[in-house]
Amino acid sequence: MNTALALAALAAALGAAPPEAPAVNTELHNETWRPQFHFTAKKNWLNDPNGLVFYNGQYHLFFQHNPFGTEWGNMHWGHAVSRDLVRWTERPIALAPDGHGTCFSGSAVVDWNNTSGLAAPDAPHPPLVAFYTGAPVPQVKGGPKFTQCMAYSLDGGETWKKYDKNPILGNIVGDNRDPKVIWHAPTSRWVMALYLDKSDYALFGSTDLKSWERLCDVEVPGRGECPDFFELPVDGNPADSRWIFVGGNGDYLVGRFDGKIFTPDSPVIRCDHGEHFYAPQSWSDIPAEDGRRIQIGWMRGGAYPGMPFNQQMAFPNELTLRATPDGPRLFRQPVREIAGLWENTVTVSGVDLRGTTTLDELSGELCDLRVVVAPGGAESFTLMARGEPVTWTAATGALTALGREMPAALEDGKVEIRLLADRASFEIFVQNGLAAMSQCFLPKPENRDWALTVPEGQSARLVALEGHRLRSAWR
After folding, report:
1. Tens-place pLDDT, residues 311-360
2. What does the radius of gyration of the chain's CA atoms come to, in whole angstroms?
3. Which domains does the chain have, with CATH numbers?
4. Catalytic annotation on 200?
5. For 359-471, where are the E strands, in sequence order?
6. From 48, 175, 228, 285, the catalytic residue
């Protein structure tokens, strides 16, 4: 987590003006600009997701949190839990600043074999172990430096205790930070990905989570902070897998890892084409029978004027790795659990689009919409979503929305768009999630209309439409 970036996001959030603000609703979790299916803290500042781990039927989401105000600072680890990735219950603060500094970003794992020795042999739960950066902010000349620390829970994640011999990894360079720890089964050891400085990262290895040795260095050109590191099968084939090394803005490298050295075999690949996606992390210890790689990010820089909270998480996505003509690429799609919020479902197929086709059944502020359009000879088509045009253009093969653009080349003559709309954000996925765009904005409160349009005198084919108005996850 970068102080300058966080402050820049704050300035953007505070400086954005809402469109003709409606009367402010102050009912908890129904405030005027409160997201209804994206996680937010009950009050005050939130940023990077931290310590994502699944244990005993619960997804744990820790997050950078200032419990004392709606501005960045005083970094603690907030904590929330969910059984379905949609409905979250906020828990007491897990980690607070100490002599090592404030608690910057990190990760968590279940130490199933008690390699750390933190639990008694007959303990009812294995240790849940969290890793974070002790960050002295502001730094004092000659004072403590950024180091990597550990905390653990012996009661299934209810309460947390800091390791009494912190730090587990001393300062290497500058503001090194954001440890991501995983279990590497082939070598029977833990691996930590750590941001060092500029565009430089490193991997470290350990057999007990307490003592670490440097394995290799990794460069992600032009990116920094908040690494993630995981393996995925290509097209679901476990015999053909790759390792993904993710930088702080979500951009990633595809490569191979032999337990010691990560060797990229791709350039840096763009993850999200919007303005508001940062510090994505994926959950540890998802059961094998589920098998998904589930990621969540911070929708950095949104504006929520007059609200008791500041900032929101993205909606959780499932990541898959698929072969493309350019090599294996990540695909992102909202997790299937969103179906638990669906209502007022509308399905349409095989319709010619001319002029404007209204989607009155979807009128509202919360929506999950998937459309597949064959533009044929049409120069463009537009999905009007709450008054905002989401436009595909034939000349560029790209989709534009809210001042941003992302690639959306035709596949078999068609374009697929998936759009999640919440009170203050759009998340848009094209071509089954090959490209995505995360955007925060403040829609005009009175505009809840949805429609599809094509230029006058032209036509396109609506191959399929499936839309759902959504209930609030808070109710």
Report:
1. 999 999 999 999 999 999 999 999 999 999 999 999 999 999 999 999 99
2. 23
3. 3-316 (2.115.10.20), 337-470 (2.60.120.560)
4. no
5. 367-374, 380-385, 388-393, 398-401, 404-407, 415-422, 425-430, 435-440, 450-453, 460-470
6. 48
